[in-house]
Design a protein that fits this description.
- Helices cover 81% and strands 0% of the residues.
- The chain is built from seven helices and no strands.
- The chain is elongated.
Length: 180
């Protein structure tokens, strides 16, 4: 079985729909909390920065178990490394955080793009395809931002919000596909 066929199991679309709704909710709440704490790279912001990729690991584990998409194992490794990297980056300052976050966004976005392309047959994947591509571009912009004076974390809250909206749209589209 190829990864493209494996993700077309009968339970995949409803399971992904539920997971995508959870990911939307998490992203919006996380973005709001980061926006409140982003002016200072203190303990609260540092914890939030590490929690986001850890949540991505948990979501990828659930997704991989449900859909058997082997590419998600790579995402689990990438997001775990990002969480660890952010622990150290948070102690070095905002530019270091933006570099680690940017590298994570590029790599995880590329994996998301590949997975979504392979899942096209499920429906509801165009938002995930767009999100993966945008994540790659956003990651590159975070890396570039890190070398600018006055770099801040607020752009990460916007990034999470947009990603969450893509998960919401995909969840809604998956629901429409199931009804048709």
């Amino acid at each position: 079985m190829t990864a493209a066929t494996e993700t077309r199991t009968p339970d995949a679309a409803p399971a992904l729909r539920g997971l995508y709704f959870v990911r939307f909710g998490f992203a919006v709440v996380w973005a709001g909390l980061l926006a409140l704490t982003a002016s200072d790279l203190g303990v609260a912001a540092g914890v939030l920065l590490v929690v986001y990729p850890l949540f991505d690991v948990a979501a990828a584990v659930v997704d991989a178990r449900t859909t058997r998409a082997r590419e998600l194992l790579l995402n689990i490794v990438i997001s775990s490394a990002a969480a660890l990297g952010l622990v150290f980056a948070a102690t070095s300052g905002i530019p270091a955080v933006l570099r680690v976050w940017g590298a994570w966004a590029v790599l995880a976005g590329a994996v998301q793009l590949v997975v979504a392309l392979r899942r096209r047959g499920l429906g509801g994947q165009w938002p995930m395809i767009l999100s993966g591509g945008i994540s790659v571009l956003a990651g590159a912009s975070f890396i570039a931002m890190a070398s600018q004076a006055g770099a801040s974390l607020t752009s990460l809250a916007g990034y999470a919000t947009i990603g969450g909206i893509f998960f919401l749209v995909s969840a809604i589209r998956l629901g429409r596909k199931a009804k048709s």
